[in-house]
Each structure stands twice: as C-alpha cells, then as structure tokens.
Amino acid sequence: MKKNTGKAFLNDDIRASEEKYRSLFDGSRDALMTLAPPLWRFTSGNPAALALFGAKTGREFEACTPGDLSPERQPDGRLSAEKAREMIAGAMREGSNFFEWTHKRLSGGEFPATVLLTRVEVAGNVFLQATVRDIREMMNKCGDIILISFEISIMSPHLRQVI
To answer: 56 vs 4, 61, 80, 122, CA distance in Å?
Structure first.
C-alpha cells in the first residue's frame, strides 16, 4: 500500500479547486468568457456564452474578437472596433468596466447587452474576464412600464370625472 505524501494531498487540493472553479464557470447561466492580449481574441467561453452568440463549438467562439460579435457601429454611431478597444483599455487601466453594448450573434442577429469586463492576473499573465447579459427582455419591460405610465397620465383627468 502506497502512502499519501504531502505532494499527493496538494495535487488533490489543486484538482478539487480547479474542478470547483470550472463548474462555477461552466455552470453559470451568465455568458462568461475570457480574452487576452495582444489580439484580444476570446480564449474561453462557457456554454451560456456559446449559446448566446450562437457558436457551435468553443473553437468557433475562440476564433472571434469582440468586434466579430458586434455590428459595425454602436447605437451612438461610433465604430464598434474602435469603441471596443476603448472599453478594453478602460478595464485594463481601472480594473473593471461596466457598460451597455449592442452585440451580434454569429448568425447576424443583434441584441442589446450589458458587459462587465474585469482585469484578472494569474501567474503573471493579465487577461480580461467578461460577463455579458442580454437585456432585451428587461428593455421591453421598461418600455411597457413607460407606456402604461404615459397612458395613465393621459387618462387620469378623465378618471377623476368618472369617480
């Protein structure tokens, strides 16, 4: 019978830690991805990211840059590629950057999203971890609330007469 050495326990701890963080990454319903300099291509994406952008495989997703998954221009009229570089630089400088963005699926369909870029350093390598959330449903609900508020404000003088 072989004795467990300190090295074996350490390897078990490392494996358990890696498994824990891999399951957090893969199991998240948020689209999580990493991107790294100098080309700022995606280096990983969880199943939610692949589904959100319509990638069939991790390899297909990892061939993309943020510019590939964005329309030519953002709603403010700026070129997506130029603005993406600015958002990345902000995250690298400040440690994080949260903003709204219009993304594009690989099939071409666009959707509004929030993006959180967070600078991460592991073993001297710096990269960004991104969290992307499709906010179409939230924007639709906000639009409904605004419309209902407007209708109530229009009808309120008439409602007083009825009451």
So the answer is: 42, 8, 24, 28
Residue 121 lies in a domain: yes
Number of domains the chain contains: 1
Could you tell me the end-to-end alpha-carbon distance of the chain, in angstroms, rounded to an integer? 88
Contact present, 76 and 101 (Cβ < 8 Å): no
In a domain, 115, yes or no: yes
**Per-position pLDDT tens, the chain of length 163:** 555 566 676 677 777 777 887 777 788 999 999 999 999 999 999 999 999 999 999 999 999 999 999 999 999 999 999 999 999 999 999 999 999 999 999 999 999 999 999 999 999 999 999 999 999 776 665 555 555 555 555 555 655 555 5
Report the alpha-carbon distance of residue 98 to residue 100 in Å, rounded.
7
130: containing domain: 26-135
State pTM to two decimals.
0.76
Whole-angstrom distance, CA of residue 151 vs CA of residue 159: 12
